[in-house]
Amino acid sequence: MDEQGKSVLEYIMIYGWIIVVTAIIVIAVAMFISPSSIQGKVCNPRIGNFAIDLETNFGTKEALIILTNQTGRQVENMGITIKAREPNTIEGSLKGITMQPNEKSAFRIEYTNGKLEGEYVIDLQVIYDTSQAKEREGIAQCRGSI
Length: 146
Known about the structure:
Blueprint: H1 3-33, H2 35-39, E1 42-43, E2 46-47, E3 50-52, E4 57-58, E5 62-69, E6 75-84, E7 91-99, E8 104-110, E9 119-129, E10 136-145
Antiparallel strand pairs: 1-10, 2-3, 3-5, 4-5, 5-8, 6-7, 6-9, 9-10
């Protein structure tokens, strides 16, 4: 290879690595400053033995929680509680739910105090009974921004 070809290849390699490293740094800084703007709305995929559907959504006045019962048993006396962490202070709950094995259901939960705004972190809690165990619990977390 002649000298000019080596120079071009060297130029491409040096500046190629600089572009890759710069892109990685920009993405890392953006995620550190505002992770929800990069990741969008994110929930843990499971809450105990229940799958959380990707369509689960948190609005300003209510939440739509979509769960699939993967316990393999009928679930009774189920309660779903949501509670936001600071700076939001919303809460909400539903009780007395029954779900069959592998049933997928949507639950609307109205917030009992205030409305959800800006970036949020919400803790989801499910407490339920089965024929073999009482008061089983599952906890998950959702985060995002409105």
